[in-house]
Amino acid sequence: MEPDVSSAMLRRVEELQRLADSIAEHHPYWPTLHFTLQLLRTIVENWNRDFTKEEHEELVWVAEKIVDSVKRIQPRQD
Fold this sequence. Notes:
Layout: H1 3-22, H2 30-45, H3 53-72
């Protein structure tokens, strides 16, 4: 991917992060949104290079946080 495209993606992720940060943190979906955007930002920032071992470990940790936060979302009772 061309650098200008990855820069455009990063700007969009940053916009979404600012919007998410303006949302009340007590919303039950907020942690999932927060960690998903964190993961996405890290991926886009490193789009044109390989991850180091430490960066990969950080990706795995954030992905686990996403899974944990999704598990905490209560399904609708039908």
